[in-house]
Design brief:
The chain is α+β, with helices and mostly antiparallel strands. Helices cover about 20% and strands about 25% of the residues. The protein contains three helices and ten strands; from the N terminus they run H-E-E-H-H-E-E-E-E-E-E-E-E. The strands form two sheets. The chain has a six-stranded antiparallel β-sheet. It is elongated and about 90 Å long.
Length: about 240
């Protein structure tokens, strides 16, 4: 009899325990405690681009500095894009900065005079840029430009810097007549962009200017506007 009563008591206790635990679980299911993690902090990628004009008499148009993960601003031996043509003939950087491949872009503050230095900062949030490009016009020319084209940023950590010099290119979109009417810079004050392409229509290394001092009589340029490579010193520093 004692064993029978003990067995009944044990079964009753087990039933009550199960009922209590079941009630607790049901309550937890109906009102779960949800822990929401905080959103991740934004990741900023920021680069300072220091540009030094190394020429004697060639002001540079406001530079276009862009971050991108695909594409190139130019290819030697191929036609210049319309955006590059406008920059190379008139110094207008707006279409380069608005190109579809641009993740983030920044223009220079103004014309960079010979011997002068400017630092341009370009940044982007939450997208790691793989490449940086820069372009600017030598404004006392018909269609000469210089810069860096799709330079890899993959190996740059915060605080790293890279320095190099740039060569000068001919966009091939306008004949190098050196005439006053066709050069927009202070040496001439002539026309900038012209939609007509009257040259070889492909990007090449620039041969330099001849100038009237060297026998090109229609030229408005002098030896002061001649240039040898390199034309810019560029230092890129990752600051974030």
């Amino acid at each position: 009899m004692y064993f029978t009563q003990y067995k009944k008591f044990t079964l009753l206790l087990a039933s009550l325990t199960a009922l209590i635990l079941g009630g607790c679980n049901n309550g937890s299911d109906k009102n779960p405690v949800v822990i929401v993690p905080p959103p991740p902090a934004p990741v900023v990628y920021s680069y300072e681009v220091k540009v030094v004009n190394l020429t004697q008499g060639q002001p540079m148009s406001p530079a276009a500095v862009i971050l991108h993960n695909e594409g190139q601003l130019w290819k030697i031996g191929e036609s210049a894009s319309l955006a590059l043509e406008k920059l190379a003939e008139s110094g207008d950087n707006s279409e380069v900065l608005a190109d579809a491949m641009v993740l983030s872009g920044q223009g220079g503050a103004g014309v960079l005079l010979p011997g002068a230095t400017e630092t341009i900062t370009v940044s982007i949030t939450d997208t790691e840029p793989m490449m940086l490009s820069l372009a600017t016009m030598l404004v006392n020319t018909n269609d000469a430009f210089t810069g860096i084209n799709a330079m890899s940023l993959a190996s740059m950590s915060m605080g790293d810097s890279m320095s190099f010099t740039t060569s000068t290119y001919d966009s091939g979109t306008e004949k190098n007549s050196e005439m006053m009417a066709t050069i927009p810079g202070p040496a001439a004050g002539g026309e900038g962009f012209n939609a007509e392409r009257d040259d070889i229509d492909k990007v090449t290394m620039h041969a330099g200017v001849v100038s009237k001092d060297d026998g090109l009589m229609p030229s408005v340029l002098t030896q002061a506007q001649r240039f040898d490579n390199p034309t810019l010193m560029v230092t890129i520093t990752r600051t974030q």
